[in-house]
Amino acid sequence: TFRLDEGLDTGPVYGTVTETIAPTDTSGELLGRLATAGAELLVRTLDGIEDGDLRAVVQSTEGVSFAPKLTGDDARVRWSEPALAVDRRIRACTPAPGAWTEWSGQRIGLLPLTGRPAADTTGSPHLEPGVVHVRKHAVLVGTGSAPVQLGQVRPQGKKAMCCFPPVVRYQGELIEATLDSEPIGEDEIPDLLYVNFKAPDYG
Questions:
Q1: HSE on the CB side for 61, CA within 13 Å?
Q2: pLDDT (tens digit, 9 = 90+) per residue, 41-81?
Q3: What is the enclosing helix (H) or strand (E) of 48?
């Protein structure tokens, strides 16, 4: 808590609270806990001011940086980044503005990954960034370091859904794999297939 002045969040501080960021936290989950902790701190601050026991302390300007609002482009997943960075970008943009990528020209929303990026990639397929490896019970995507396993996805104009099962269309050889909510038999899903997420051009 701090006293307002003419600057942007630069007023003298009455009290602070620290909240640990868990390995699987999304920004929404963290914000929810901070809202509760902040409300409790505000009550203690007001009580302290009323009692005359609390004095504001001038903020230090050392190590301070401006945090701009996240944009839709910030939320676009860069598959060339290491797996840990991909995981953090998705969680940081959940629920808003919402992480996303492209599939067959359509924007696909991405919810947090299943599990955490593994430091040991033994046994994992080698996938180039953005290449999708589809198994019967998992969808892996290549990153700049190691594959990650997708969790729920949100096709454009639809609700969030499990990224399985995929609808696979063949015409001699694989031409496309799309996400759909209609279930198909497990025996109809090939053991694996490869498709590509569209890689963004960052110049």
A1: 3
A2: 999 999 999 999 999 999 888 888 888 888 999 999 999 99
A3: helix 27-51
> Residue 198 has which token pair?
């569209």
Prediction pTM value:
0.78
How far is Cα 90 from Cα 99, in angstroms, rounded to an integer? 5
Can you name the residues that pair with 106 across neighbouring β-strands? 103
Q: Confidence band (pLDDT; 50, 70, 90) for 174?
A: very low
Q: What is the 3-state secondary structure (H, E, C) of 102-141?
A: EECCEEEEECCCCCCCCCCCCCCCCCCCCEEEECCCCEEE
Give the contacts of 9 (CB within 8 A, at least 6 positions apart).
2
Cα separations (Å) of 94 from 73, 110, 170?
14, 9, 34
